[in-house]
Amino acid sequence: MPAPMKSTMMQVPLSLNHLLERAGTLFASSEVISRRPDKSLTRHSYGDFVRRTRALGAALRSLGLQKGDRVATLCWNHHAHLECYFGIPAAGGVMHTLNLRLSPAELGWIANDAQDRFLVIDDVLLPLYQQFAHLYKFEKVIVYSFSGAAVPAQFTDYDTLLASADADAFDYAVHDENDPVAMCYTSGTTGRPKGVVYSHRSTILHTLVGCLGDFWGLKGSDVVLAVTPMFHANCWRMPYAAVMMGAKLVFPGPHMHPEDLLDLMQLEPPTLSLGVPTIWMGLIQAFDAAQAADSPHHGRWKLPRGMRTLVGGSAVPESLIRAFDQHGIWILQGWGMTETSPLATVSYPTAELRGASMDERYRRAAMAGLPVPLVDLRVRGDAGADQPRDGHSVGEIQVRGPFITGSYHGVGSPEEKFTADHWLRTGDVATIDAMGFVKITDRTKDLIKSGGEWISSVDLENALMAHPAVAEAAVIAIADAKWGERPLACVVLKPGQSATPEDFGPHLLAHGFAKWQLPDRYEFIDAVPRTSTGKFWKMKLRERFAAVNP
């Protein structure tokens, strides 16, 4: 009897090191552009980037870095942060991105939980570091002079450290493809943040999936504007993808205001960009305002027609998709979370939509979309069964796949986050239709149950933001003596616009809502509070408007 057949394929581990060497060998002249605090631009070739990255790996090893040691970064988006993305794991370490928008107490707690050995930090962020330095002591603080100023003597100068290392003599750490490469903590809006640890394997597979034609569709000729913070789920893995393909990378540094991004787009017109919806809301509002003849910015900006934009982090209003499409820019909505690396679904125009009307295409584009390859997704109802694919039945999104976390650092797999058959419980409530399109209805904690019936805060928000006077809207549940809960809408008006609560009822009814689903109260606010990653922070609104309806 013949022996069972075996594969003849090589067992070569998936590795970020391959992407780095590929970039240096094939794309040495491609550029990495960074905007400094003074708004000047620095330019590095991929050849420079690879040499500096190898030098960083050698320098960290000379400092005593051991395999598996955590190296924290507290940096804006720029070329030195990109060097950390590859140089830390190349030396065998684990890059841990700290969120610079967190409080000092949270940063101290997270650094301690991760047991970071070293810290790489921008000099402009040293005042933040000084606020939590007493909470956790790093063995070495390495300061990148982002501003160009001299590094204080008590710290290690990043560029001096790299200059002292021998990049040519550096040997990559030997690793298994399942070894850790990076870690990121969840937002922690409820309870303590939890650490998610990514592997070489999960990172490479996620990068390959993201580059498929219906997703990023990344090409070497692309110019990528990475607005998403590099501390937020590793900038959605776009830096890895750009390096793999040799695409030009443009980093905005700390300049995230709409006017600054529009200025940068004139200097380095992007073909692909990514960021959270609030970024693009602000950008289109600033652009539209500049079209007025009396605007001080009249004629200053052009939008990069043909640019593809991946938007995620929270629901994308259909009105935003329509607004950008008028300028030849199509928004691809993605859904995911830190635990999913993060890309888990993307709403792209499938073959079934080839003959669909533009209204139907817009409606689909405002959904979370279809699961990406290698991700299994189900919508589980309260009874524990999968919901039918009818576009109406709601349940919790649960996912599994090779770039979905199966546990948390130091915590394991808590029952409230994982099912008995090892699917991740996302906490997001959704429907799924016959075509496989997922529509996020709410977070489980944000659903409004009024008189035994569910009301989607997300649907109300998107409809309100389609009103011409509304810049942003967030809807929360408030306690009600009769109905249990009722919706309250917090509305931010566009500059120069006015509206009253009476204006919104007919608008919402015209968008298909029943009268009982309409908010009972409207509160006009200056801005919607946001989490550290730019999402609406509804907990703060619930604390502010906690009164029971009469």
Please give a structural write-up.
This protein has 15 helices and 25 strands. The protein is α/β, with parallel strands linked by helices and 550 residues long. It folds into three domains: 16-24 and 42-197, ANL, N-terminal domain (Rossmann fold, 3-Layer(aba) Sandwich); 257-443, Rossmann fold, CATH 3.40.50.12780; 448-544, GMP Synthetase, Chain A, domain 3. The strands form five sheets. Strands 2-1-11-10-12-13-14-15-16 form a nine-stranded mixed β-sheet, sandwiched between helices. It has a seven-stranded mixed β-sheet with strand order 7-6-5-3-4-8-9, sandwiched between helices. It has a four-stranded antiparallel β-sheet with strand order 17-18-19-20. Helix 2 packs across helix 3 and helix 9 packs across helix 10 (277-289). It is globular. The mean pLDDT is 93.
In short:
The chain has 550 residues and is an alpha/beta fold.
Shape descriptor reads: globular
Radius of gyration: 24 Å
> What portion of residues belong to β-strands?
15-25%
Say how many strands there are. Answer: 25
Separation of the first and last Cα atoms = 82 Å
Major sheet description: 9 strands, mixed
Structural class: alpha/beta
Spatial strand order of the main sheet: 2-1-11-10-12-13-14-15-16
CATH architectural name of the largest domain:
3-Layer(aba) Sandwich
CATH homologous superfamily label of the largest domain:
ANL, N-terminal domain
Number of helices: 15
Structure characteristics:
550 residues, alpha/beta, Rossmann fold, GMP Synthetase, Chain A, domain 3, 3 domains, nine-stranded mixed beta sheet, seven-stranded mixed beta sheet, 15 helices, 27% helix, globular
